[in-house]
Design goal:
8 helices, 2 strands, single chain, two-stranded parallel ribbon, mainly alpha
Length: 229
């Protein structure tokens, strides 16, 4: 797995069996509900490929054709992979040591504006076409983020801002990000202040999930011979 090689190489001191087994647990989370389609980022496609391999091997080894569907990835939209605000070649990640590299769901408006204002760019104006973004990782990333938040294509974003520098584009992106994130942040703060509501939601979700998952677990136990009830 590419991510395992990357993370275990860069951060050996933080590597553990959890990093190694995570893709298998992720596969279990998908197969437990017999999912057929999974919304996923571009960088997670490899995990879904492993999930498909595990499903196919189970179906074959236990002579249970079609028991687990082979899930397909859904990577629709203009931003299948969002990159760091500080390094256009690295994925935006909560594990990045720099908080300036990402926009957190709990960031307030001032913090979001400041992070976008400080986001790494280049001195050139935005081009008219996507081809003009080649070799400009940071510029491409900010255009991609704008497109995702505005529900536009990247081509449409460039048509709107072509010829403009980041002095004009960044404030527009910041306003859009704040408007898009504000309702999410407000709801998160409301829930974090109401632990009883969080407990209620978790209990309700667990009950609905168990209603789907428990019969699948029972079927699996029968198929592999753990019990014959």
């Amino acid at each position: 797995m590419t991510q395992f090689k990357e993370k275990s190489g860069k951060h050996k001191e933080r590597s553990s069996v959890g990093l190694y087994t995570y893709p298998v647990l992720q596969a279990a989370d998908i197969l437990l509900y017999k999912a057929t389609e999974v919304p996923t980022g571009e960088d997670q496609k490899q995990h879904l490929e492993l999930t498909r391999d595990i499903a196919a091997k189970f179906n074959n080894d236990f002579n249970a054709p079609g028991f687990f569907p082979l899930p397909e990835p859904l990577t629709q939209g203009p931003a299948p992979r969002v990159m760091s605000l500080r390094d256009g070649a690295a994925k935006m990640s909560k594990s990045d040591p720099s908080d300036q590299s990402r926009i957190n769901l709990t960031d307030d408006a001032d913090t979001i504006v400041a992070k976008i204002r400080k986001a790494r760019t280049d001195p050139d104006a935005l081009p008219e076409t996507l081809e003009g973004l080649e070799g400009r990782a940071e510029a491409k990333n900010l255009v991609t983020i704008y497109a995702a938040l505005a529900d536009m294509s990247r081509e449409a974003v460039l048509a709107q801002f072509a010829g403009q520098g980041f002095g004009a584009f960044k404030p527009a992106l910041a306003d859009l990000a704040v408007a898009s994130m504000a309702p999410v942040s407000a709801e998160m703060r409301r829930l974090m202040a109401d632990t009883a509501e969080i407990d209620r939601v978790l209990k309700d979700g667990a009950e609905r999930a168990a209603a789907i998952a428990d019969p699948v677990v029972d079927e699996v136990k029968k198929i592999v011979g753990f019990w014959r009830g």
